[in-house]
């Protein structure tokens, strides 16, 4: 598949489909066993930022560390620092160690950094499901701005509303293969149909096993 500037691509599918693995390949964290990946431009990923956080450093120092991790000049990161802190909006915790942060606070800080460094490609893995409604709304608006600025977005999400209301393209993965690529509404519809069928099949199999177990129980003579 291909993602160009100005596109927001959603990657959806059942658990174990390969969604997170795909994003790790795009981010350069792991290398594919076969096939090729060609990324042109500066990639910013909440995957790599999350891995780069130092648990013993403060949020403020982790911003600087993330900048170095992304290859950003120190002076440029110092200029971005106030805006990142303001956007993350975690108050006095910015000067506390990351290990004291909740998952929502980590997500807020990671998102603030990843979107402040002006990436050509932004990769997000379900992180926007974390945090309160106000921050989720704010993060959606930030991603819309990046898309309008001709950036490329690739995100994994289980929130189908995100896919249909925000993304302009989607792919459905299953067992490492693309089942369908195209209009978000169509991809979501197929995903929901397949998910419902898988649920019915599981329930049928469970009922069959239960019936088999019950019939195998010895009867008591009177």
Structure description:
By secondary structure, the protein is of the alpha/beta class. It has a 6-stranded mixed sheet with strand order 2-3-4-1-5-6, sandwiched between helices. A hairpin with a 2-residue loop joins strand 5 and strand 6. Helix 3 crosses helix 4. The model has no long low-confidence stretch (mean pLDDT 85).
Can you give me a brief rundown of this structure?
The protein is an alpha/beta fold. Helix content is 49%, strand content 14%.
Structural class: alpha/beta
- Principal-axes shape call: globular
| Quaternary organization | single chain
Gap from first CA to last CA:
68 Å
What radius of gyration results from the CA coordinates? 21 Å
List keywords for this structure.
alpha/beta; six-stranded mixed beta sheet
How are the secondary structure elements laid out?
Elements: E1 8-12, H1 19-26, E2 43-45, H2 46-52, H3 59-69, H4 74-88, H5 103-116, E3 121-125, H6 133-148, E4 152-156, H7 160-165, E5 169-174, E6 177-182, H8 184-215
Parallel strand pairs: 1-4, 1-5, 2-3, 3-4
Antiparallel strand pairs: 5-6
Helix pairs in contact: 3-4, 4-5
